[in-house]
Amino acid sequence: MEDDDPETLDPALQKKHHDMLERLSARHQARKSDSPDTSSSSTLESTSSFLAKFSDAKRSIESRIAESRLVSSSSSATDSSKLKSDLADISLAINNLEKLLAENSYFLPSYEVRSSLKIVSDLKQSLESLSAELIPKKKFSFKSKSTTKKLPETQKPGVVSPPNVAVPVRDSPGLRNKHGETLVKSFKGSSIGEFTLSDLDSCQVQLTGTVNALFLHRLKNCNVYTGPVVGSILIDDVQDCVLVLASHQIRIHSARKSDFYLRVRSRPIIEDSNGVRFAPYCLDYQGIEEDLKTAGLDEETKNWSNVDDFRWLRAVQSPNWSVLPEEERVSSVSISR
After folding, report:
1. Where is this region: Disordered (predicted)?
2. Share of the chain above pLDDT 70, in %
């Protein structure tokens, strides 16, 4: 299902996804009625709770768009300032929906991310159409030079702009704020669940053994070699780096001029990235075969070259990434455990 193009999703799959959203929304509402609402700003903990909340917000926005259209069509004396305020509020709600998706995308299945991005894009289109319909109806053309607040423009066809939201740095064990160092860490016998690499410049990082999740933030001119990650790898803001990574899911945000050597079970995802190249995983250290088997990554899926660019939804190849030519690849990297 992760190979589906969101512009040509099978109608049956779309209906199945919609029905699932409705069921999860109903469960979410039932839970809310049984217990007080806790902090809604924190990252949601599961796919089902995200989808339920996303569905609630989507239906609320659709309802507000429909209501604005109905009120305007039923009254010729609709207050222009109120109408603009309502449209601005809807635009803000869509932006918040984008933020919700950005904050939770690291653990969502690729199909859900693609479907949710398409929903956000459709809502933006609906709001843009509504604004075009309603604003010109007002009889204020003699004030043509006055400044009016414009709603955000809808993206060009084929391009979806992911929300410009800074990915939060995890408060987890890790290596931070280093320059020009060789950093070595073994997870053998460790109970560490998540590990973070943050604010590294001109460093070589060697991680052996397995860990549940890995987060990389603000890396420049670094070489990163990691053993298999059982869950997900989330990468944000890397430049001029070489990264050798193995994981079930890999999400890459704001990467520039970097090479990725990957073994990954699902399709790698890039967002707001350019000049990135991909090649197969090439790391070797004593015990790596056992670690790959433990992480469920002992088989090569060749997904390293099946990259999804969420800024590029056209049928043609994204210009933001490419396959690293064989003559430029490193065939094998050996590190000590």
Report:
1. 1-47
2. 71
